[in-house]
Write a structure and sequence with these properties.
CATH class: Alpha Beta
Strand order of the largest sheet: 2-1-5-10-9-6-7-8
Oligomer: single chain
Number of strands: 10
CATH architecture: 3-Layer(aba) Sandwich
Number of domains: 1
Low-confidence stretches: none
Shape: globular
CATH topology: Arginase, Chain A
Structural class: alpha/beta
Number of helices: 10
């Protein structure tokens, strides 16, 4: 069992209100699918530990971290931006979502496991250095990456983001950090309406027009991502795994299918095997068509675990 599965009960208790697409049912469906398909039998399961304020402050300003912590309500809901609100469980969930990626980093770099999937919510890739945004409070991937760089002393870390929405928060935090290469695909003319003009030379963004399907994804990976990754030679790969470019997901309009996500997952494992002894950490971002999300996460995790 060389692949870890990290989650926390608070990640299900976090709720942003009826009809909100970023809902607890997302994680419930993923768990049920992994159990029902027997995938969980091949994973090392861990309860995520909360990120510390020091760990969060490597990616966010200390003032911002304090603001989020102090805003947490004890009852009801508190809205922080038009898309993002807290209930009484949100703070614990957000701390454990970021902490899961830190914990996964320690597990992978200690050699305890080779790969990890963090089944967490709230997601993170829209959270900027000092702002909530797009359902996100703390930037889970960026917190983990800075832990790998600043605590473990890695010199080259790759972040891959294939969510249908541009990871503006990750770019805001990691742009011009020469220890990081970020490669991404996302749909053009879609929230958060950024990414076509990258903020740093270490950002390789491949915007994809609507209704183009999986063929352009494959071209981007083979023609753009692979050459950059080969030149960079990462020591560890992080993945912001969003599944909302799926044909069944109405949050975007790229029309990817299950087979596209499977192909992409195999390519990411190939990158990890080529450059960093197979070491890869994936953390859940978007994906709001519940059935498609559960299917695609299950096959993603099975591929990480070398079961497919």
């Amino acid at each position: 069992m060389h692949t870890a599965y990290l989650t926390h009960p608070a990640c299900v208790r976090h709720d942003m209100g009826a009809e909100h697409p970023e809902c607890p049912e997302r994680l419930i469906a993923i768990h049920d699918r992994l159990v029902g398909q027997g995938t969980m039998d091949y994973l090392q399961s861990y309860t995520a530990q909360p990120a510390t304020l020091a760990q969060l402050s490597r990616a966010h300003t200390s003032l911002y971290v304090d603001e989020v912590v102090n805003a947490a309500p004890t009852t009801g809901y508190l809205r922080l931006d038009p898309d993002t609100q807290m209930n009484s469980h949100t703070l614990e969930a957000a701390l454990c979502a970021a902490g899961a990626v830190v914990q996964a980093t320690d597990l992978v770099l200690s050699g305890t496991v080779q790969r990890a999937f963090c089944a967490v919510r709230p997601p993170g890739h829209h959270a900027e250095r000092s702002a909530t945004m797009g359902f996100c409070f703390f930037n889970n991937a960026a917190v983990g990456i800075r832990h790998a760089l600043d605590v473990h002393g890695l010199e080259r870390v790759l972040l891959v983001d294939f969510d249908v929405h541009h990871g503006n928060g990750s770019e805001d935090i990691l742009a011009n950090d020469e220890r990081v290469l970020m490669v991404s695909t996302f749909q053009t003319q879609l929230y958060p309406f950024s990414g076509e003009n990258p903020l740093g030379k270490n950002m390789l963004n491949v915007p994809l027009p609507p209704r183009t399907g999986g063929d352009l994804l494959r071209q981007a990976v083979l023609n753009d991502w692979w050459p950059a990754v080969n030149a960079f030679k990462p020591q560890l790969i992080y993945v912001s795994a969003g599944f909302d470019a799926h044909l069944e997901d109405d949050m975007g309009n790229l029309g990817w299918r299950d087979a596209d996500y499977a192909w992409l997952s195999h390519e990411l494992v190939n990158m990890a095997n080529t450059h960093c002894a197979g070491r890869l950490i994936s953390t859940l971002e978007g994906g709001y068509a519940i059935a498609a999300l559960a299917r695609c996460v299950n096959q993603h995790v099975r591929i990480l675990a070398d079961l497919e």
